[in-house]
């Protein structure tokens, strides 16, 4: 993590300790999924307020999700995805890591035109929205300037709503959301890996994430076999195995 915000990073991390020590306990007993399924407000987390695409970033919650959003995906595939998901709009956001990755691949003369990856992300989202025939709905702020999530939801329902208010009501912490429902397994696993890399890297909690305080992949399974809990847990476990004990996997079945 960057030196200048170390105390803010620590404070954010510790503010989630109570929730996570309970989660780790339940996980060790094989009861975390059951616990989450029995939360009284769990249904609220599966009622989206809008169908605008946003990044997987925990600081851009609500709606539908894809890294960037969609800036790392082949354009034709991205447009198809916006159509099949009946997306109603597209947001870009401040400090987007995926836009940063895409910007690094833009040729230098064009990079000068965009100046920075935020402008590039905004420009890209506007163009993509236009091509898909949906509105570009704005550039979201991202506060604080580091990632605060200790968990990523691998969502087989496509409707998991990580709005701050809803998570608070249910007693869940901030989380990345990977919309597995709308991506093939390869793309979704790639996004899940990006989330864990961010959280365990310089823009997230870095070395605070360790075997004794692991990052959590929380899988949302469905009753149908294409997105069953068992299948998606296997996918998430394959990604977790790349993080040397620093990522644990658990899951529950969506109440829908
Ligand atoms: Zn982003």
Task: Note down, in words, how this protein is organized.
- It is a single chain.
- With 256 residues, the chain is of the alpha/beta class.
- The chain has one domain.
- Helices cover 40% and strands 14% of the residues.
- The chain has 10 helices and 8 strands.
- Strands 2-1-3-4 form a 4-stranded parallel β-sheet, with helices on one face.
- Strand 7 (215-221), helix 10 (229-240) and strand 8 (247-253) form a beta-alpha-beta unit.
- Helix 5 (97-104) packs across helix 7 (117-132).
- The longest helix has 16 residues, at 117-132.
- The radius of gyration is 18 Å and the shape is globular.
- Bound molecules: zinc ion.
- Zinc ion binds at residues 55, 57, 68, 93, 96-98.
Detail the poorly predicted runs.
none
Strand content: 5-15%
Class from helix and strand fractions:
alpha/beta
Number of strands: 8
Give the averaged pLDDT, no decimals: 95
- What is the rounded distance between the termini? 39 Å
Number of helices: 10
Q: What number of domains?
A: 1
List each distinct ligand once: zinc ion
Biggest β-sheet: count, sense, barrel?
4 strands, parallel
- Share in helix: 40-55%
* Spatial extent as radius of gyration: 18 Å
Order of helical and strand elements: HHHEEHEHHHEEHEHEHE
Shape: globular
What spatial order of strands do you see in the largest sheet? Answer: 2-1-3-4
